[in-house]
Amino acid sequence: MTGSHLDSVIDGGAFDGPLGVVSALAAVDRLRDEGFIPAVPIGVGAFVEEEGSRFGMPCLGSRVAAGVLPASKALALADRSGVSLQAALEEAGIDPAGVGPSPLLERMGTFVELHVEQGRGLTAPVGVASSIWPHGRFRFTFTGEANHAGTTLMEDRHDPMLTYAMTALAANKQARLAGARATFGRLSVEPNGTNAVPSQVTAWLDARAAGDATLQLLLAAITKQATERAERDGTTLEVTPESVSPIVDFPAGLRDRLVDVLDGAPVLPTGAGHDAGVFSAAGIPTAMLFVRNPTGISHSPAEYAEMDDCLAGVDALAAVLKDLAK
């Protein structure tokens, strides 16, 4: 099985996900043109909601397909407008009863995902993944006291925005010290008025590190500083994990086989999450190919890959599929 996802982040680019789907179809066409007859079936998967941009759960499609996320929990997920996945499917004319583990999973011998590289770690046209960093999404809820922006003395305020602001700075510092990644990229403020001290600030932390222990220590350090600041501000803090994925180490034997097929392609880890990580955790032998990103920009309209590199990716994927299915 090969493929990737079709969705993107809000205001995202054109390559993260769709490149893997298009390349999979092109690689299969390449093998057909060559007259290659596989000894086992080759399938192409196009997964949905990998980014979790609407329903908040990363790799939602592949989690359901792999049986990692029960259908009942998936259907109950709601977007920011309160629309559940079940309601969205029904509105689109899709029967929610069809949501559940894929029957193809029992036949999936290997999963290979091609993806644009999302940093500047790859200098060759195509590389092979060694691992996926552990990562998590955590909801930080800062609660204070709403009050008038013009009449409330600064020393009389219990402002959760101050607690959040210090926490964002702490996350930046702690991630740099740990050689990790920490990002507050989403924020909700109540009552969200220009002339009002907020009563509550909800912020979502995306945290990633090279190892599980480092990720746990990073979260603990950020939470400790946030809690201490909340005590000084007269506010409170609640931290809720929304999704946490452990490190994924791709099988060394399969990885080395791909490297040999591709004449010594470079090997590198990734800090981005992928559908491949879900299938790996489900016990499927899994590998990944990366296509060079010349700028390192991703999750942005400026995301880009050169056409020659994309075509090299198709060649590489076709060669890998041919070797695995012969």
Distance N terminus to C terminus? 14 Å
Main sheet overview: 5 strands, mixed
Kindly state the percentage of residues in helix. 25-40%
Query: Strand tally, please?
Result: 13
Mean pLDDT: 96
Low-confidence stretches: none
Order of helices and strands: EHEHHHEEEEHEEEHEEHEHEH
Name the structural class. alpha/beta
Radius of gyration, in Å, reads 22 Å
Number of helices: 9
Strand-residue proportion? 15-25%
Globular, elongated, flat, extended or rod-shaped: what is the shape?
elongated
List the helices and strands and how they pair.
Layout: E1 2-5, H1 18-33, E2 44-47, H2 60-65, H3 71-76, H4 85-91, E3 111-116, E4 126-132, E5 135-143, E6 147-148, H5 160-178, E7 181-190, E8 196-197, E9 200-208, H6 212-233, E10 236-245, E11 248-249, H7 252-261, E12 267-270, H8 275-281, E13 286-291, H9 307-324
Parallel strand pairs: 1-2, 3-13, 4-12
Antiparallel strand pairs: 4-11, 4-13, 5-9, 5-10, 6-8, 7-9
